[in-house]
């Protein structure tokens, strides 16, 4: 399966939850658009905590074919250019498809968080969210600890 991310635009939104800047991409396979992906370039800490750095959607007729995981695997070099060293993702515990997608893309489940009531209502998200992280460029500290561990 050939999947690529096609850049569309950078969108800025300061309409209500603080300033948010996003890079918008189409997920393309064999010349056809099968979904969308958003990389949140700048957002409030609550947005990153409860929504993650990345959002994606695959059109219904293309779901279950691995397009989202393939698109997420294309994202690290793009995110590095924007200064990311890691990417955070969130999903609801009952969203098995997203959980599998994130794991196939190499993200690790790190924690389960409780979302404050006012955030649930205001941003229409569930009471509990799973947080996943994908490290795309080890920090100097991580690289040094790895070097030290292998030299012992």
Give a brief description.
It comes from Pelagerythrobacter aerophilus. This protein is α+β, with helices and mostly antiparallel strands and 152 residues long.
Topology:
Elements: E1 3-13, E2 20-29, E3 32-42, H1 45-51, E4 54-58, H2 67-81, E5 86-91, H3 96-104, E6 108-114, H4 117-123, E7 128-135, H5 140-151
Antiparallel strand pairs: 1-2, 2-3, 3-4, 5-7, 6-7
Report on the architecture of this protein.
With 152 residues, the chain is α+β, with helices and mostly antiparallel strands. The chain has a single domain (3-151), classed as Gcn5-related N-acetyltransferase (GNAT) (Aminopeptidase), CATH 3.40.630. The protein is 33% helix and 38% strand. The protein is built from 5 helices and 7 strands. The chain has helices at residues 45-51, 67-81, 96-104, 117-123, 140-151; strands spanning 3-13, 20-29, 32-42, 54-58, 86-91, 108-114, 128-135. The strands form 2 sheets. It has a 4-stranded antiparallel sheet. The chain is globular and about 45 Å long.
């Amino acid at each position: 399966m050939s999947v690529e991310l096609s850049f569309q635009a950078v969108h800025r939104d300061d309409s209500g939850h603080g300033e948010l800047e996003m890079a918008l991409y189409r997920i393309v396979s064999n010349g056809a658009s099968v979904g969308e992906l958003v990389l949140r370039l700048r957002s409030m800490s609550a947005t990153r905590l409860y929504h993650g750095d990345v959002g994606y959607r695959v059109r219904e007729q293309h779901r279950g074919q691995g397009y989202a995981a393939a698109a997420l695997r294309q994202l690290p070099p793009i995110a590095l250019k924007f200064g990311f060293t890691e990417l955070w993702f969130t999903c609801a515990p009952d969203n098995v498809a997203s959980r599998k997608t994130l794991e196939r893309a190499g993200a690790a489940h790190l924690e389960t968080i409780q979302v404050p009531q006012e955030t649930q209502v205001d941003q229409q998200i569930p009471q509990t969210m799973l947080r996943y992280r994908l490290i795309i460029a080890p920090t100097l500290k991580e690289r040094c600890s790895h070097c030290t561990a292998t030299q012992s």
